Sequence to fold (983 residues):
Amino acid sequence: MSQQYPVLIVIVPLLSAFAISIAGWVNKRLCFPIIVTALGVAVYASVGLLLTVLEKGVVIYHLGGWPPPVGIAYYVDHLNGLVLVVVSLVALLNVIACKKSIELEFPDKAAPFYTLYILMVTGLLGIVVTGDAFNLYVLLEIAALTGYGLLAMGEERAPLSTLNYLYMGTIGACFYLLGVGYLYIVTGSLNMVDIARLLPPLYQSKAVLAAFIICMVGVWLKMAFFPLHAWLPNAYTHAPSAASSLIAPLVTKVMVYVMIRLILTVFTPEFAFATLALNNVVVWLAVIAIVMGAILALAERNLKKMLTFIIVAEVGYMVGGAWLGNRAGMTGAILHIVNDALMTLCVFLVVDNIVYKVKGYAFEDLQGLFRKMPFTMGAFVVGAMSIIGVPPTCGFFSKWYLILGALQAGHYGFVAALIFSSLVSVVLFFRIFEICYYEPFSDHHGHDHPPEPMDEAPLLMVVPLLIVAVILILVGLYTGDIVNHVIKFAIPEGLV
Amino acid sequence: MKIIGLIITIITGAFLVYAAVDFPAWADPNSPASTYLSPYFIENSMKDTSVPNFVTSLLADYRGFDTMFETTVIFTAGLVCFILLRISGGKEPETRHYRHVLTGVTVTLKEGRKIPASEDFERIDDLWTPPDLIIKTGCRLMIPFIQLFALYVIAHGHSSPGGGFQGGVILGASIILLAISHDLRTALERMREKVVAILCPVGVAIYAGTGTLCLLLGLNFLDYSALASVLHVDPISARSHGILMVEIGVGIAVMTTMIWIYNNISSAGKYNQGL
Amino acid sequence: MSELIPTIIAKYNYWIYITLMMIGLYAMIAKNNLVKKIVGMNIFQTAIILFYVSIGVKKGATIPISTGGHGAAHEVVHAADYLNPLPHVLMLTAIVVGVATLGVALALALRIYSRYNTLEEDEILAKIRKK
Amino acid sequence: MFWQIDLAILTLVVVTAVGSLMVKDLLGAAILFGAYSFLMCLLWSIMGAVDVAFTEASVGAGVSSVFFVAAVFRTSRRTKD
Fold:
């Protein structure tokens, strides 16, 4: 069975989506066990796949039994093996942690919600695992459509911000499709590896240049890279908790993965970095993204919205790191995909727990939370430390590689932006710690009113959150192993 | 906003025009797109799958995996429309109107009262216009032929234009036509919401299930030649039959999704008389 | 100049696709009405489909259905006689994705209308600000 | 393929596209969009993409227009641009 792992990762969630959808009309209690089992299988298969890749190298799977340029093929190498594990793990932990809040927020639509949830995970896993440029587009649309459905179920402003996301997302996906069309018209192939083989004689063609730029713009729209980020904060803020804590950690990171895949596999780094000489422009855009994200986050008085602006800044980290055009920067970007997915999951799960108990996420709702929800806030401290970049947590190490890459490339603006955003994060998070530490002001000034009793979120929500916090530290401690055994092989030899 | 839009549009357009200069000339038989991969499909489709329509064999076999997700996209759209619009467990309006079909008398009932369950009364909404007899009868006559044509399109997709998508859409359109010419309640009597909602994932599951069956029989996912041992035919015919199986699945999924989306949009999720 | 006119004529399909795409893009950015934006989005998507279909055209070729019919597997098929089927297949997918996106977008527009009672973007934003 | 017909269809495609965006009535926009889809379908069948044209005729011109009309009926026909 192990040679079927690449397809099982996608097929098991897909089939279970149909099972959940039908179970919703028969017996609603079946939905949760099915989704957990399916995601568990996906995690198992992706870990097994990563181990196979570490042992034997690239795994290729021919769908329908047709060899690659004719049919669709899955290529699993070190890069997407790693991302697959992260995506499936985040999805599994999130669905367990969000069971209670899904039941609270959608008492009668839990089954369709679970179906959309697992279809979204299917789409994201499919994007990561595929080796076919057009197949990627179809899965992109699955992930996008399910995302619209999940995001729009939130507060009353959610449909409007989701519709804006839909316009932007459709333009992005269509640009990607157009770029693939340009590649097809000059090469005649859709398979990524095959295109990479056919492209080198055509590097001077304007159509290839246009294909590259159009694909990049499309993917940047989808990942909310700086000038194209306007849809993200509102869409994520008004979303229901379970949806935002799935989509915020995964969608932007998977899009960064797509960008890195396009640069590394389809167009090759020589073309992207050497022939085009666009590096400086993009890295400066990333610098602006980081600075603007940090400043806009400072202006917010609302925890969830502040975190969404931090996501915009984090996207800047990864795009900038990838476009530095050297090995350390690329390592930092790939490592940051892993770390950022986990730490965004951590802080958004904290928001879920707070919303579940306090029914709000504005700053004034957070008072006295350290006493009320000590475990949740403990995990929040770990997540915040990781976003700031304090050493034992994983956030430090990816920033370290990014700074190393920036110094190697001689790009001091990027170094300055990284340090600036770390400082802003310190201000942001310590302001929140301060609010959470103090009790709410009471009307009568006496010292006699009893301290609020501990009122922690249910065990089912807290335990996965604590697991995520532990993983954050563990990934930090084992960063060396991840870089030396996985990421080192994910980057082609040509990139120094 | 208009000026920004104009600037962005002009920049993008100019860039695309700049890039299009390097394209191979239009309809050039020697362009890479026509010489690299497509001759394989044209020359081998009959040998590999015994399907004369290259588009069908390419759609459901060589690139069948894309098509499976395409069907999933359709299913997702139906589900999203349902989850966004359907008002479940909504309160019944305080006054309800019933129309006696034979006499045309309208009965208005207050909260909680019921009429004798009989075929003579039909439920109507506040805004009700009598349906036109000619349109009603005409549509009623047309619908069976439309459905027959749809089934032909699905079944004959192997050797003529058409297939699961087109046939499924036409099948769905026949029910939508019923809903437009009569009202949504009539269409819902023929096709209950629960039936639609269950058939839709079942249709996609037929597709994915066929693929999984191939996987369980020991070959790769969606490699229909594995079905040869089950169907007792040679692998090439097995591919042809596999394509038919998935087309039927696609047809079911697309038909139900179209009906599902129409039901939800036309009644804004209330499932009353519709348009 | 004398070179320009043959270029324009040889690729006129590409120029039309770019025109349509820009019409759609402009509508999506600049229009105020939500349904108009959705119409623009569909025109945008159809333009890309036109582009792909134009890739598949070949001079002197017929529609991609074998003339031999069933049971003619032994016949030799010449690739130059038939149009390129691959772009057609891709575009079937794209059309279906287009209608799926359309359904979702209209559902969202209905939700927005039931909440704000208007489809004009500026009026909706004014209503949000008022609160 | 007659180039006169081709040119006429291409012009009409652009005209209907612009028209459906300019007309100050959403129902009219929906119907013009249906006309646009049908012309597109015609164009593709001229280009030999019969399957794509068939799909566009049933999906793009048929069901999409119905969805548009249904949505316009459920909301309003009014538009400022």
Summary: The mean pLDDT of chain B is 84.
